[in-house]
Amino acid sequence: MTNFSDLGLAETVLRALKTEGYETPTPIQAQAIPLLLEGRDLLGIAQTGTGKTCAFATPLITRLLANPEHPRPKQTRVLVLAPTRELAAQIGDSFRAYGRFAGLRVATIFGGVGFGAQVQALTRGLDVLVATPGRLLDHMQQGNLRLDGTSAVVLDEADHMLDLGFLVPIRKIFSKLPKARQTLFFSATMPTEIAKLAGEMLHMPEKVSVTPVAKTADRVAQRVIHVEAKRKREILVDLLQSPDFHRSIVFTRTKRGADRVAATLAEAGLTAEAIHGNKSQNQRLRALDGFKNGKVAVLVATDIAARGIDVDAVSHVVNYELPEVPESYVHRIGRTARAGAEGQAISLCDSEERDLLRAIEKLTKQTIPATDMRLNPGAPEEAAPVVKKPAPRGGRPNPNRGAPAGQRQQPPGGQRQAPPAGQRQAPPAGQRQAPRREGEQRRPPRAAGEGRPQRDGKQVRR
């Protein structure tokens, strides 16, 4: 099959695809769409950027149009679950684009924004609801949504769902769905947990796999730059200032690291924004919109955003830090070379990340071409400077603590020194005194024969 018109999609959907500039279906679209039009359950294995959103959205819209009914209040006919806000928003946009001539009610709900508009959309009833699991459960618990009228459910990026700890919420959501439904699982990888979950929730599913598990995008040119950790920012700025880097994504491991890198790039005169879980939804959308329309040249992101950024014409992906989970590398570099384009992925690797690089190469079954930009390739990297702890309050540091015998320092001249062992003299008998506390005045000794004061013939104890 070489055209969408051969797949059996509704005429309004074909018209929308033509408007979007779609001509030839990708392999996963050509295989999945006919099966989904038959109402079959599906387990789809496809790396990011292969067009899987279109593969499940267009047949589901066609099935909704074939069974027209008015959405009932507080219900949705189709439910799509996504792991992140960005991915949910993009899937919602795709359903609106493919169904622009179908007159369907589509809504997207996720955390980080107010409930008002979401409650209003749910109250009217929906044809398609795209949601993140946490916010969806909130609405269900508040009585804003029921799922007993849902005829189809999609679990997108299922492996990422499990990585983020959504297994329990997913089970709760699926327990409220009718047993007679169409269920679709899409995942970039197939770990044991996903296979087990699919076995529980899918009924005699068809399996579509268009790429080997954990295979990196074919049109991405990859390379590694070995560099000292302290020089990473310098190398990153030099790379991004090249005119070839016209739209780039930089990945870090931590949220704080993303903010620091974005600030460094801004100081170097580059337009950069950070996007991560600590940013508000409005901040994340504003940064993503700026990146899409070209106002922001560099987007600095954490792994949580790796699968939610679907932007065309990303020329480069730079791994400022290698991910601790090798599969995340596949999703990171999949942000470039989308929709048939080509792209480049560059990873900055310091000495402490060598094991992470080996794990990535083992997973992807390839050796990534490397360039050594270390100043002293044969020398080990400098250890982090040791910060000396201050002496305890009220005390004096002892320079001889821990020093070997014979190397202990003598106090400066004029300071009191203890006499050598065996030459210390004890005070004469009767003159030994207990140590006096600071500021304490010693009472003068009693005169001979002086006793304690008496009262009624008895001594009074002070």
Commentary on this structure:
Residues 2-30 form the DEAD-box RNA helicase Q domain. Residues 392-433 have a biased composition (Low complexity). Residues 219-379 form the Helicase C-terminal domain. Its EC number is 3.6.4.13. 32% of the residues lie in helices and 15% in strands. The protein is an alpha/beta fold. Strands 3-4-2-5-6-1-7 form a seven-stranded parallel β-sheet, with helices on both faces. The chain has a seven-stranded parallel β-sheet with strand order 10-11-9-12-13-8-14, sandwiched between helices. A two-stranded antiparallel sheet has the order 15-16. α2 (27-37) packs parallel to α3, α3 (52-66) crosses α4 and α13 packs across α14. The longest helix has 15 residues, at 52-66. The protein is globular.
Summarize the structure.
The protein has 462 residues and is an alpha/beta fold.
Number of helices: 14
Q: Main sheet, how many strands, which sense, barrel?
A: 7 strands, parallel
CATH class group of the largest domain: Alpha Beta
> CA-to-CA gap between the ends?
110 Å
Oligomer: single chain
Low-confidence stretches: 383-395, 435-442
Order of helices and strands: HHEHEHEHEHEHHEHEEHEHEHEEHEHEEE
How many domain units?
2
Write down the overall geometry: globular
Strand content: 15-25%
Give the helix/strand class. Answer: alpha/beta
Residues in helices, as a percent range: 25-40%
The fourth-level CATH homologous superfamily of the largest domain is P-loop containing nucleotide triphosphate hydrolases
User: Largest beta sheet: what is the strand line-up?
Assistant: 3-4-2-5-6-1-7
Query: What is the CA-atom radius of gyration, in angstroms?
Result: 35 Å
